[in-house]
Automatic annotation (TrEMBL):
Residues 49-73, 160-188 are annotated as: Disordered. Pfam families: Prp3_C, RWD. It comes from Salpingoeca rosetta (strain ATCC 50818 / BSB-021). This is RWD domain-containing protein. Residues 168-186 have a biased composition (Polar residues). Residues 12-156 form the RWD domain.
């Protein structure tokens, strides 16, 4: 993909974002940069059209004459997105798109959280950059990043607050928390739980390893489905399932939602398990990119394990 192709995608993404956020007034863009890049793009398209009509010789000449122009766009697209969250105040994203975006580079971000410390801003910025690199490399992703802010900022605020508490030597809170976890493992959370967790997609190899590794560490069983959409079924001791889900929430996801939770008050957790271990369920893939998981096979697998009715609740089939 050429620089010209990148700029074309940037301008199209800009137009889409302005349409989405037009009524909210929460997105501003450097209009002068948009105008200059649009003119530059049109000039190159016109030159290419003339070159095509001139034959091979003209084509070679034009490549030499326009090469410098292609490699040096006259401006850089910048955005400011203001996101209001329910519990964490407002977040401001200053976004710069390098000429290599989206094919070979991600967006450049500067995050400001006026209601919180610099640590929150820095942590949120890193989470968003990681999300862009892990989930959207090579693709336009500004809408997805903006959409992820409300969930991520609340997680970051919680994590930074907890870290501040530990650094201040708040041992009483730590002891209390440890005591509560210990009592939960032997008290109200010592029964059986099974959860079905829906994901917009699961592709990343590191996340796939974490999904399995955390389950093995916590003595949980179930399965995961890779692709779009993604799915995790996890079962075992209730407190461990809760811990497992919390661990997954700390990872950057485009969408993660617990769709179904089943609990049984029992001391015999093993008798309630439907799966002997945690594993990755291999199903056929389809779609233009071959990344859409065959949900028909997932449904059949659930039915074989006496969980067919759950499928309807996960994917809202027939509702």
């Amino acid at each position: 993909m050429t620089i010209q192709d990148n700029i074309a995608e940037q301008l199209e993404e800009c137009e889409s974002l302005l349409c989405i956020f037009e009524d909210e007034g929460s997105l501003t863009v450097d209009a002068d940069a948009v105008s200059r890049l649009s003119d530059w793009r049109r000039a190159l398209e016109t030159a290419t059209a003339h070159t095509t009509g001139a034959g091979d010789g003209g084509d070679n000449a034009q490549r030499h004459s326009s090469k410098g122009q292609q490699q040096h766009p006259p401006a850089t697209l910048t955005f400011v997105a203001k996101v209001n969250t329910e519990h964490a105040g407002s977040v401001e994203l200053n976004i710069t798109l390098p000429p290599e975006y989206p094919a070979e580079a991600g967006p450049q971000l500067l995050v400001r959280c006026p209601s919180h410390s610099r640590a929150v801003s820095d942590a949120l910025q890193q989470r968003l950059l990681t999300l862009a690199a892990d989930e959207f490399a090579g693709d336009c992703c500004l809408f997805q990043l903006i959409d992820a802010v409300p969930q991520l900022v609340e997680e970051v605020v919680e994590e930074v607050s907890a870290a501040d508490g530990r650094s201040n030597g708040d041992n009483s809170n730590v002891d209390q928390d440890t005591s509560q976890r210990g009592s939960s493992n032997t008290g109200k959370h010592d029964g059986f739980m099974r959860q079905f967790i829906y994901f917009h997609h699961i592709y990343n190899k590191s996340k796939r390893r974490d999904i399995l590794a955390h389950a093995h560490e916590l003595d949980l069983s179930g399965f995961s489905v890779v692709g779009k959409p993604g799915l995790v079924c996890i079962e075992g001791v209730e407190a461990n399932v809760i811990d497992y889900t919390h661990r997954l929430r700390r990872l950057p996801w485009q969408k993660m939602q617990v769709k179904v939770t089943q609990t049984v008050a029992t001391s015999d957790v093993e008798s309630e398990r439907k799966f002997p271990r945690m594993h990755e369920l291999i199903v056929d893939a389809h779609g233009q990119r071959g990344n859409h998981a065959d949900m028909g096979q997932v449904r059949q697998y659930l039915e074989e394990h006496g969980l067919g009715d759950v499928f309807t609740h996960i994917f809202a089939v027939g509702s």
